Amino acid sequence: MAAAHSEPGDDPAEAVRLRLLETAEGLGEADLLRLALQQAVAALGGFGGLVHLSGAADGTLRLVAVNGLPGPLAHRWDELPFTAATAPSHAVTRGCVTWSPRWPAAADGDTGLPGGLLAAPIVLDGEPVGALSVLTGAAPAAGRERFLVRVAASLGARLSRARHRRTSGAPWWLEPIAVREQVMRQVGVGTWSWDLDTGLLDIDEVTESLIPAAGLDAATWDHRIETWMERVHPDDRPDAQAAVDASIATGQPYAVEYRVVGADGAISWVELRAGFEYDDSGHPVRRAGTIWNVTARRSRLAWLVGLLELHPDPIHVLSADNRVEWANRAARELGDGAGAEMTGEVPWEKQPSLAGKGIPELLASARAAPEAAVTAELTYHDADGGLPSSWLVRAVEVNGFVATQMADISEQKAAAQAEAERSRLTTELNEALIRALDTSDVVAAITEHVLPLVAARGLIVHDLTGPVPRLVAATGYSAEFCAELEAPGWPQRLTAATDTAVPRFFSSLAELDRNWPQLTPLARHGGTGAWAVLPLIVGDRRAGSCIISWPAPRDFAEREKTLLGTVGVIIAQALGNARLYEEARRRAERLQQELLPGDLPDTVAVRSAARYRLAAGEEVGGDWYDTIPLPGGRTLAVIGDVKGHGLEQAIAMSIIRHAALTVATLDLPIDEIMAHLNDVAGRLGPLTATCMLVLYDATTGDCRIAGADHPPPIVIRPGGKAREADLPAGQPLGQAQVPAPVTETVLPEGSVLILYSDGLLDTANRDAAPLTDLLTRYAATAPLPADASRRGPWLDTLCDTINEQLPPDPERQDDAVLLAMAVGRVPARRIAAWDLPRTPESAQRGRTLAAEELAAWDLGDLTETATLIVSELIGNAVRHAVGIGTDVGDDVAGFLRLRLLHLADGSVTCEVYDGSQATPRVRHPLLDDEFGRGLQLVAVTARRWGTRYTEGGKCIWATVTL
Predict the structure, then answer these.
(1) How far apart are the first and last CA of the chain?
(2) Which of 540, 678, 839, 911 is least enclosed, having the fewest CB within 10 Å?
(3) pTM higher than 0.90, yes or no?
(4) Nearest CA to 640 among 566, 730, 744, 515?
């Protein structure tokens, strides 16, 4: 085994020295170090030698053996940092033999002896743990360096085996081995032993110099352990005794620090370490150990502990089981002193409000990265449920414990939250004002968002954009005060009182009275304590003012003033935009009113009601409707929809609607009216428009319907269900290539006709079933009144019901129009009709029949005028037309039809039907012309007259009134 560690060299003596070292068996660590140091110094011819091993603190070397050096010189090498520029430090850090003339600095500036130190690393288990050094007069030769390396290597191997045989856990240099007495004296560590049989203490010279600190005289004390324990500070005695008892019970060494009391009452700190010595049977017979006066170090520690104790931030030290081992004063004062109860407890178990706040995770992160700070934020409520506390917690793991430092960031957190809340409220205010359309929307946004933004109570806003000042908002004040603000004269007084171009702030009534007395009466009456007067200026024009008030005096911070000034600008801009919108809306509403028919005209035997609703957010639309009275007791109902929203659609709708009015005066068939509307729509450019025409004759009940891709009308017959009329859809206006199909039906007395646009239907599928179901339920619940005078209110209620419930979409994305008509009949007693041969004699017969019927209707005052018109119309038909059902070439004269209609009180309509579609016209005969004056007489004597075409000819009519 020895041969493995020695190699032949140039000097036989070196081999012998290595052999002596390697064959030494049973030596303890101290004896082994002494032997190695003696051989190294002798072989290298050195002045002395040193052995350093790694100290308790990381990165330091501690002197553990000395040879040939006096105490003062040896003390300079007591403790070396790895970073020191000395040979032992370099040998350990570099892992190789090093020679250096450098000595540790001395207080007197002496650089030491001549020469330097040759040091070789001592390697244990592959790691440098110390250095073997020899003091030489000059740098040794390479062979000497190799020898020192071999000695250090052999020492490392032997030191490892010596340590494996040890039973004590204390460092060997703290054990009272006589061979180390010189080193102990040099480093100020005393040794002692306690005979367990006699109970007597044996101490060395160093210990004798230390015991006076405990109030004992080395020459007179009785050397008993009890006497020593009596000098231990009373507060430390239980812990010290417990450590001794535990060591006796377990047989393990112990280390303890405690205070001893001197004769003069002075307090000193000592550190004791001890282990057992055993007899051959393994029974402990003696406890041997060291003592060291650590008062200086403890003073520094006490200063540090005091510094931590008085630190303003709460500091906790937690053990491995997450229990609080120590807390400084700030930590103990947490929660009104509840923090003092945290020692020995798991924080989140002692205080449930800390549970779930991430503290275990923070401690785990700190333990996962020892000596690295881990930071987290902690917010919790005190045990009494008060305001939340926010802390920035830094956790560091050191030697199995985690130290936490808590910095109170409650104010910063509250300020940040307040700022975030202000930003949120400001953003919401901006969004609300962006969405606001009119002044009421702006006022609602200000009330909802501005007052919470600045924690205010009262708000007054007045507007100067109109012809006269007006109060648009007053909230947060008594009803009496608000009523006074709206009284005549107050808006003008308010305008004068708030005449300013820059925001003004008043922290109290006294300040307001002193700086702006014109507002004092208002402030006194309002009962508030602080005010902000914000001018509302748009461009270079004053749009009004905004007065915000608080119930108590307050100081306005600069940031708050800036915020309120910005709010004033935003409000001013919003009010200006609202006024522009209101003006535009008024113009749009006026335009829409002008484009729509307004009150529907009275028509014969038909009651009508209509509703028009714009799409959500629109001002004008393209839906339209109308009812047009036509001669002969007929009514033309028209409804249409120009797809889309906006001014362009409204203009197109107006053109088509007025075209319908114009064409209707020509009294053309409805398919020809639709053809004219199709032409008009085609000239308007690319658009999509639908239309529905319904022509109802109240004298016969005949109803003719023509559609252009519009939803068909819904008919409710008396006692029946609501059903859609069965008719072809047709093509949209402007796109039709063929005439619109016409459907003819007869409506019974008391039928209801519903015309509508698809804005009343669900936007998804345009299904009319919900509308027909609603109509059926309504008609079944409240049937159409038999009294015609009550049908108007019935139709109004029906329209309102439909308008409120349909469509189900709350946004109502499309315009909607609804036209409801309750149709009746002209009584038969007010209709008289005769078929007369197309002969000149029929004129006389017609006058006679007309005179008789007028007398029956009690319209004798109209007889002369009416009979003249009948005579002229029949004569005109005999001369210029053909009979009904005949043609010009026929030999048969055919017949004419005379019909009188008593449609309104005090009037009668005379109609003459023939078989010709030639258009009659008023002629202008010369004075000597025999014919040509008939229609002139009709035009002069009748209130109205005209011609309409029928399927087999035409009808010339004239209406006369009293």
Answers:
(1) 154
(2) 540
(3) no
(4) 730
